[in-house]
């Protein structure tokens, strides 16, 4: 059942966060916005050993974020992505659905940050075999799994 793939509770989310090695971040911001979660969450993840693939929606002049080359199109990611972490408004999620479903290989997990949810979007991903973590902070759950920042 697809609803088994929609995660909202801590134990499973913490387990997923603790296993991540590669995270693509849709909606990542640049260092100029370092005080915002769309920058400091991936910065924290990177400090715990996670490889970050930055996929900004804005910042057209950015070519690198967190020392990694920017990718502008999810379908251009050809590496295995453990988690696609999304920093977009709930109402903007559906515009990314087709691109996510066309990723090859697809992400194992799509992670919707705290406050982000869209039932239709979540169900479509789950129906296509993608686990979705809803409205949880990846930084908090990664830390809860035992990882600490190494700045």
Q: Could you give a short description of this structure?
A:
This protein is α/β, with parallel strands linked by helices and 151 residues long. 30% of the residues lie in helices and 18% in strands.
Task: Write a structural description.
- It is a single chain.
- The protein is α/β, with parallel strands linked by helices.
- The protein has a single domain, classed as Rossmann fold.
- It has helices at residues 10-19, 37-47, 94-101, 119-127, 138-144; strands at residues 6-7, 22-26, 51-55, 64-65, 68-69, 83-86, 109-112, 131-133.
- The strands form two sheets. A six-stranded parallel β-sheet has the order 1-8-7-6-2-3, sandwiched between helices. Strands 4-5 form a two-stranded antiparallel sheet.
- Strand 2, helix 2 and strand 3 (51-55) form a beta-alpha-beta unit.
- The mean pLDDT is 96.
Topology of this protein?
Elements: E1 6-7, H1 10-19, E2 22-26, H2 37-47, E3 51-55, E4 64-65, E5 68-69, E6 83-86, H3 94-101, E7 109-112, H4 119-127, E8 131-133, H5 138-144
Parallel strand pairs: 1-8, 2-3, 2-6, 6-7, 7-8
Antiparallel strand pairs: 4-5
Strand tally: 8
For the record, the count of structural domains works out to 1
How far apart the termini lie comes to 41 Å
Q: Strand count, sense and closure of the main sheet?
A: 6 strands, parallel
Keywords:
single chain; 151 residues; alpha/beta; Rossmann fold; 6-stranded parallel β-sheet; two-stranded antiparallel sheet; 5 helices; 30% helix; 18% strand
């Amino acid at each position: 059942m697809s609803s088994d793939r929609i995660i909202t509770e801590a134990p499973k989310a913490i387990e997923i966060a603790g296993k991540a090695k590669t995270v693509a971040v849709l909606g990542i911001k640049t260092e100029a916005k370092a005080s915002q979660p769309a920058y400091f969450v991936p910065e924290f993840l990177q400090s715990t050993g996670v490889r970050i693939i930055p996929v900004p929606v804005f910042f057209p002049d950015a070519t690198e974020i967190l020392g990694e080359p920017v990718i502008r199109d999810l379908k251009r990611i050809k590496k295995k992505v453990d988690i696609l972490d999304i920093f977009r408004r709930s109402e903007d999620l559906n515009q990314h659905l087709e691109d996510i479903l066309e990723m090859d290989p697809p992400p194992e997990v799509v992670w919707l940050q705290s406050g982000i949810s869209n039932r239709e979007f979540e169900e479509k991903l789950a129906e296509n075999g993608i686990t979705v973590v809803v409205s949880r902070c990846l930084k908090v759950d990664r830390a809860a799994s035992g990882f600490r920042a190494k700045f």
